[in-house]
Fold this sequence. Notes:
Blueprint lengths: L1 H13 L12 E2 L2 H4 L5 H9 L2 E7 L6 E7 L16 E9 L7 E9 L5 E8 L29
Antiparallel strand pairs: 1-2, 2-3, 4-5, 5-6
Amino acid sequence: AGLAFRLYRRWKRNKPRICPIDGAKMRRLEEHEDDEYLEDGQRMEERLKSVDYDVWICDECGHRTIESYKSWFSNYGACRSCNYRTLEGEETIVESATTSSTGLKRIDYHCKHCNDRYHTHVTIPKKSKSSSSSSSGGFGGGSSSGGGASGSW
């Protein structure tokens, strides 16, 4: 099913576009050509590989269409200030979780486009008593890096 989805997505991205103004066939610009039509934040997203943009142009009337494709595996989220997917977060454990108490981590955010900076604190769940033994290979009871992104991710 994954292969079929990827093939469908590739077909949909590459299929010819028809100009909504005059019905002519549109042409997709090459990667080195499309930057001219993108905003600064969009160019930064492309450099960070968080979003890829395709620019389609009608050679008859000059109409342009810009389509965005978010990366499935990007370390960048949407910035609260500029809304580009140029926000990165760095986690610091403030207090480790134990089997008897929750922990706390601080996430420092920095936008590579607009330079906004802020931080949040996220509670780390208590470690599970049943899976925290050292014989479990060290995978017991920790927390994932998910969550705490204030809906930005």
